[in-house]
Write a structure and sequence with these properties.
104 residues, 4-stranded antiparallel sheet, 67% strand, elongated, rRNA binding, bL21-like_sf, ribonucleoprotein, structural constituent of ribosome, RNA-binding
C-alpha cells in the first residue's frame, strides 16, 4: 500500500500522494511558491493508519504552486414563461494547481 494523506484545503478535503497534482479553489501566491498544509486529517503509510481527532499533530504536507488559472466556463439560463424575459450568464471559477512534494 502506498503512502497517502487526506488534507483539508479551503474547507474541502483531498486525498493526495507524493507527486500528485491537484486543482483547488484559488490560494494566494504565484507559480513556484512553496506552501505547507498542517491540516492533515488522515495519514496512511504501508500497514500503519493514523486518524486525526480532528487533525494529526506534527504532520505537514509540503506543496508547490504550479499555476493559477480559470476553470471551464459554466453557463446558465433563466427565463420567465409568457413574459419574454430571458437571461443568460456564465462564470469561470479561479483555481490553483498544486503539486504535492512531500508528506511528513
Amino acid at each position: 500500500m502506498e503512502k497517502f494523506a487526506v488534507i483539508k484545503v479551503n474547507n474541502s478535503q483531498y486525498k493526495v500522494s507524493e507527486g500528485d497534482v491537484i486543482e483547488v479553489d484559488k490560494l494566494l501566491g504565484k507559480a513556484g511558491d512553496k506552501l505547507k498544509f498542517n491540516e492533515v486529517l488522515l495519514l496512511v503509510e504501508k500497514e500503519k493508519t493514523i486518524v486525526g481527532k480532528p487533525i494529526i499533530k506534527d504532520s505537514v504536507v509540503d506543496v508547490e504552486i504550479v499555476e493559477q488559472f480559470k476553470g471551464e466556463k459554466v453557463e446558465s439560463l433563466t427565463y420567465k414563461a409568457k413574459a419574454r424575459t430571458r437571461r443568460r450568464f456564465g462564470s469561470r471559477k479561479e483555481l490553483t494547481k498544486l503539486k504535492i512534494l512531500k508528506i511528513n
